[in-house]
Structures are given as C-alpha cells and as structure tokens.
Amino acid sequence: MVHVNAIAFFLTIGILLVSSTCSDITNVKIDYNIVLQTSISTPTLQVVTNPLLAKDIAFQSPIFKQAFESLNNLNANYVRYVPWFPFPRRAVAELEPPSPASTGLCYGPIDISIYNISIDCTNNNKMKGNIIDNIVFANYGLPNRLATSKDKMCLGFQENKTCSQNVIEEISRQCVGKSICSINGVELLLQIEKINKGSCSSQAKKMLAVQAKCKVPFNYTSWNFEILDPMMYAFFENTPLNSKRIPNWSTQPAWMYDTTTWAYIDNPNLNDAYIQGDSNLSQSEKYLISQYYRRLIRYYVKGGFHDEFGEYIVNPNEKLININMWEVFNEPESEHMHTAEQYTQEYDYVAAALVKEVPDIVLVGLALCRHGDSATEWLNTFLNVSNHKIIDGHKPKIDWISYHQYASCDSMDPADFNECYFSGKSGSADAFVIEVQKHNEIKKRLAPHVKTTIDEIGTMNSGSSLPSLYWNAAASYNTYLYLKLMKENIEVIGWSQLTAYPNIESLGLEARDPSVAMLNYSTGMGNARYWVLKMMIDYTNVGDKLVETNWGNDDLYVQGFVTADGKMKTTVLVNKNVSKQNIQLDLVGDTVDLEANCQTYTVDVETGDGVPRETIISRKNLAVVLDSFAVTVLRCGAGTIRVSSTEK
C-alpha cells in the first residue's frame, strides 16, 4: 500500500511539472497568408561628434579606427551626423565674429573665471612673425561690445563705468611684442584682485574684454576647419557611398544671436555649456545665420567660399562631399528656446541658402525633443505652408520632419525596466507610439507629402554605473520601438548614438551621456544596442511584408515578415522583460520541406559585446528560448511558398 501511494504521488508531481512547463510556453502563430502592410521603414543611427571619434591635432582617440570600422560594417542608410554644442570647437566653423583691420582683434566680453583668451596676430599661422603691437582696450567689469548691426563685425568696446577695472597695463605687460599671447583667465583674475580691487555694485557677472592691434593689420575671420574636417570626412568615408547621409550642423555661432557673450573652452575635448543665445532674431540676424550655412555647405560640396571680407577660404581636402540631405537645427525648442514661429522663420532662411548651393537637396525640419502639447503646436505651425515665406525667390521647401524619443528610468533594477521603458510611464515606448499616431494625423491633414525620420530613439539614464542587463534592455527597447514605428509607416528610425562614454581619466575625458552608447568606449566594438541594429539592417528591409502575428504574452513582442521576393521568412522576437521566455512558433502557410532547417541570430546577456549567437533549429520544432531582454531573429527559406497579395 505504501508503494502504490508513493507511485501515485510521483505521478501527480510529474503531471504538475509538465503542466507548469506547458503553461510557461508562449505559442506564437504567424500566418503568411495574411499580409498586413508593406514596410517603408529603414533602421539607422546617429553619429554625434565627440573626442572618441577624433583623429586630429587636438586628440588621437585610441578607438578611432575600430569605431569607424564598426560604423562602416553597419552599412546603414540615412545616417545622421551631428556636430553638437557640448564641444563647440568640434561643432562650429566660425567661433568668433569678424573684425576689420581698422579695429584689430576683439576678444570677449568673457568670463575669465572659466575661460581663457588667446590673442593671435599670426592669423592662424597665415602671417608668421606678425606681433601684438598695442593693447587698445582691456577692461574687467561690464564692458559693452560695439558691432555693426548687419554682420556683427566688431568695432571695439565701451567701458561701463558702473562696474569697470582697467587692466590695459597688465595685459600689455603679458602680450605686447608676442605673436601669440595666451592669457590664463584664473591667473589674470588673481592679478586683477591684487592690482585693482575697484568697486562694482552691480550683481551682474563681471567679464573681461580685450582689443588688440597687430604690427601688420589684417581683416580677421575665425573660419577654421582644422579640427572639423577629419571627423566629417571619416564619417562620409565610412557610410555607404550611394546612401543618404543627413548632416545636422546643429550648433550655430553664438555671436550671431543677440547675446552678451559667446565664450568657449580652449580644449576641444572638454564638455562645455556653449551658450547659443536666444532666438528673437532680426531679419539681418536670420540672414547672417543662413549665410553661415551657405558657406559651410559650399566648403564641402564645392571646395570653398568667400568669407565676409571677400577672401576665398579653400577646402584643402582632395575630395568633395556629396551632400544630398540636411537637417536644420537640433531640438530648437530647447537649444535656442525658439518658439515654433521663430524656428519656422529661421528654417526658411537657412533652407533658401542651402538650396542656392545644392538645388536638389532634401531638407529635414524640426528635430523636436519635447512631447505633448508642445510637439502638437510645433507640428501644426511648421507643417502649415501658410506660415512659411519666400526667401530670395525660393519657395518654402518642406521635405521631411524629425523628432526624438528617449525613455528613462529612476531605478537601475532590471526588474523595473519593463515598466520604465516599454509600457508604463508617460515616456515609455507605448506612450510614444500613441503620440506618433497623433503626429501622423497632423501631417496627413497639413502636409501628406512630408516624410518622417525619428532620428533619435534610445534609453537614457543618469550616472555611469549601469548594470550589464541595461544594455540588453536598451537593445530590446530600440528593437521593439522600431517594429512599432514600422507599423505607423515611419520612414526612418535612428538609434542613438554611436559613441558616448563615462569619465575616462587616462584620456582626460569627462563623462558624455554614457547610457546612450552603441559602442564599448574601451574597444570601439559594438554593444548589444549596436548588434540588434545590425540585425535589423541586415534582416528587415523596405518592401518586406508584415504578416499577421499573434501571441498572448505582454512580456513579448513578435513580428513575422516575408521578403518582397517571397524567398525568405523572417521573425523578430523581443523579450521586454527580465524573465526568461519559452516560445513555440507555428508558421501557418509555410509549406516548405519540413526537413529544412531555420537559422536564429540572438543578442542577449550571454553575447555581451560580442556578435549575435547563431544557431540552427529544426523546422519540425520551432522552439525558441529568450533570456532577459533578448532579441532573436529567426530566418527560414520560403521555398515555393507564395504570399497572398491581399493586404488588410
């Protein structure tokens, strides 16, 4: 009797175990007889300038070669290139306003507690041996710059006697007779406090302004591409020759705006809060900015331009660049505090200038970072052609729009990532897709011909200490959002971003958005975010048919495809959670020989920064296991199967 009960007990436990195992399996049914839509979406990425991509006179990145090789290996279309304001010397080609020979050289007003000044009478080595002859003006306090209203050329400075300390004698002592004089701001500030304490009742931030005359006067402009060119050319050389590339020189010279200072850090490799000024521009200022962009694009596509004094600035590089797209500004509602109306006006000026140089150029507008009512207002304003104006005979040109999406999480516990990134808080992927649907309705109503690139998607978390599973969650998030946006007929979806990094003391680099990186900052090799993008580029294409795909598990997202030629079937499986997922696939309409096998490619915690894991699985039993936040692509040859032409 004891033996019988024991056998019954073990049989019962066995049934429970089998039942439990079965209940943990998610059955996925993919019906190739039902085509839902045809994909028009291209996955891609953005490349944002920073020192880890530099090989120039200012920095030699140890991962430069591998980083650009990784970019090259993606073979991506519509790659976005963004010289950006945290590194102004890597983002702006004309950092100082011009000054005529009659004025001399103007510097400031500048906050010398943060910034230094370098007086250069060699005109960037064009006039070797020229020396500083005289310091005309040197004042610490609240000096005013005098400039022409049309082109902002410096005419000199004016003392503000309510707060003024004359430092001509000290600057002259340091600089007269030298070709180049570097003034250390902090050291000078100590000298000022010793020699002339003065009195300033004003609470305004005190600044230093210096006007110098050289022995041989010259018309001065600050156009300089020495640091800018190597990265720009490396970018174009490592993206496909016949692809669309989208440069966005997002940072304009601050002095062109109505601002009191446009100081920048000497070191091109340190983070800088480069103040770009507000957007309340006069017509002449809008024109000034448009001419900056006209000269900039001429330099790369035509080999040079005439500067403000008529001197020809030559591009010394042998190759010209084929620029066929351009995005106008980045996150303008934040970086310049534009209103939608102000941005639309500036866009028209810049668009007209670019079209003059490249008549068939395709333009991208907006690049918005804010959501909700703000985004709605901007779209309604910008997409309404009646809000645009004809500039220099050029009609308004609106080809594409762009906007951005980042999900963040206060917790670094992977168990919380699903709610943060995918389906919980207002900034999640699901909430964003609802917003995209609203954006598409506005576009359909006002400008149905306009295309959309959501050219920054990603997760962004503060700090540099990120758990290893973070990178898999980020990869899973990007893949999930890409597939969801594909269903909304978004033409381009861009991963953010190629390189970013924590503090790297050995290289003297301060942290720059480490959580958005696609490459390992030590090796230049791809992390999980990079490798899932490569899988999407390699295995999903414009023209693929999205077929009906059903499953009953909110922790998963699955989409079945068949290629345009009907020869290959692809299934993308995304685990949105930290828990492991067991999946059984049923491919309806798949009449290929069951003896044939399928291939899987997987990015998960086990692959780490390595290439996707490849496995062969039997068509007779399409069982897939997804580890925490794993992404798997299943590829099966379609053989003689024919896809129904009926689309829902």
Descriptive notes:
The chain starts with a helix and ends in an 11-residue tail after the last strand. Helix 6 runs parallel beside helix 8 (340-357). With 648 residues, the protein is of the alpha/beta class. The protein has helices spanning 2-23, 64-74, 168-175, 185-195, 228-237, 283-301, 332-335, 340-357, 372-382, 417-423, 429-446, 468-487, 528-539; strands at 25-38, 42-48, 79-82, 105-110, 117-120, 132-141, 144-147, 154-158, 164-166, 180-183, 207-214, 245-247, 304-306, 312-314, 325-327, 362-368, 400-407, 451-459, 492-495, 545-550, 556-562, 568-575, 581-588, 597-603, 613-618, 623-626, 631-637. Strand 18, helix 12 and strand 19 (492-495) form a beta-alpha-beta unit. It has three domains: 21-39 and 543-637, Immunoglobulin-like (Sandwich); 42-92 and 223-539, Glycosidases (TIM Barrel, Alpha-Beta Barrel), CATH 3.20.20.80; 105-214, Jelly Rolls. Helices cover 26% and strands 25% of the residues. The strands form six sheets. A nine-stranded mixed sheet has the order 25-24-27-22-21-20-1-23-26. The radius of gyration is 29 Å and the shape is elongated. The chain contains 13 helices and 27 strands.
Task: Give the structure's gist in a few sentences.
The protein has about 650 residues and is α/β, with parallel strands linked by helices.
Q: What brief labels describe this structure?
A:
about 650 residues, alpha/beta, Immunoglobulin-like, Jelly Rolls, 3 domains, nine-stranded mixed beta sheet, 27 strands, elongated, disordered C terminus
Helix content: 25-40%
CATH topology description of the largest domain: TIM Barrel
Residue windows where pLDDT falls under 50 for at least 5 positions: 1-23, 639-648
Write the CATH homologous superfamily of the largest domain.
Glycosidases
Task: Determine the N-to-C terminus distance.
Answer: 63 Å
CATH architecture of the largest domain: Alpha-Beta Barrel
The structural domain count equals: 3
**Total helical elements:** 13
* CATH domain class name of the largest domain: Alpha Beta
- Major β-sheet profile: 9 strands, mixed
Task: Tell me the Rg in angstroms.
Answer: 29 Å
Query: Any idea what the shape is?
Result: elongated
Residues in β-strands, percent: 25-35%
Strand order of the largest sheet: 25-24-27-22-21-20-1-23-26
Kindly report the average pLDDT value: 90
Q: How many extended strands?
A: 27
Derived from helix and strand composition plus strand pairing, the structural class reads alpha/beta
